[in-house]
Amino acid sequence: MIKIRGLQKSFHDQEVIKNIDLDISPGSVVVIIGPSGSGKSTFLRCLNGLEIPNNGIIEIDGLQLDFSKKVTQKQIIDLRRRTGMVFQNYALFPHLTVIENIIEGLITVKKLPKIEAIKIGEKLLEKVGLLTHKDYYPSQLSGGQEQRVAIARALAMDPKVMLFDEPTSALDPELVNEVLKVMKDLANEGMTMVIVTHEMKFAEEVANEVVFFDEGVIIEHGPPSLIFHNPKKERTKKFLSLIQ
Ligand code: ADP
Ligand code: MG
């Protein structure tokens, strides 16, 4: 369902993503691991059009963008609509309540009537266990709760794939599991997910595929049993030995 071919992205003359190919099948969970600065965030940002690749093809659910040609703003918007993204720093709108944060896109982008948007928003808040907090402001939530709202907000737009960029890295340790649990539930429901994370236990449990990035290339990828327990490449072994 997601096909990436020859993806390339440079900042000035630094090539950060170097000719990446990757296929992601529907309903699968792909975990990306790799050292800091290896291009993981840039890769995710390319997938949802926050960065414009210099070259390559991204195909998501029938929409194909070929960056070797001119890509229109409309194509970028279409790409963004197919992808939901959750960042390390939750980035909720501070002046809006939880429910207002969630329905904002439904009203302004999808043009749904407010009543309908609220219905969808409440259902999603129930899913992430925060319906009771719908009228709270972000400042009244814990980091873990904010991140669960951020997930609900991304889901509200009904994306084809959810992209997570280190969603638990900024959290106090005791708040990490509540966010991972919501992500696990999503995976079990069949959501297609691409997750950059350092949570190896989670990756081992949930990932169908682990991708090891280094210096803008995929060094190796495969099921967690292979990448974590029987990596083929020296660089993968070295990285894993440093983090475990
Ligand atoms: P990771 O998420 O794996 O830590 P990033 O994708 O954030 O890596 O960054 C990869 C490289 O690209 C780094 O060297 C970083 O400094 C550089 N980079 C990322 N974003 C920008 C940007 N907007 N402008 C210039 N350089 C950037
Ligand atoms: Mg990053």
TrEMBL record:
Q: Which terms are listed as keywords in the entry? A: ATP-binding, Cell membrane, Hydrolase, Membrane, Nucleotide-binding, Transport
Q: What class of enzyme is it?
A: hydrolase
Give the membrane topology, semicolon-separated if more than one: Peripheral membrane protein
State the Gene Ontology terms under molecular function.
ABC-type amino acid transporter activity; ATP binding; ATP hydrolysis activity
Its annotated compartments are: Cell membrane
Record-linked SMART domains: AAA (SM00382)
The ABC transporter domain sits at: 2-240
Q: Name one GO cellular component term.
A: plasma membrane
Stored Gene3D superfamilies: P-loop containing nucleotide triphosphate hydrolases
Pfam families noted in UniProt: ABC_tran
Known EC number(s)? 3.6.3.-
Top-level taxonomic group? Bacteria
- What PROSITE patterns is this protein classified in? ABC_TRANSPORTER_2
Q: What is this protein called?
A: Cystine transport system ATP-binding protein
Q: Organism, per UniProt? A: Ureibacillus thermosphaericus
Q: What is the lineage of its organism?
A: Bacteria, Bacillati, Bacillota, Bacilli, Bacillales
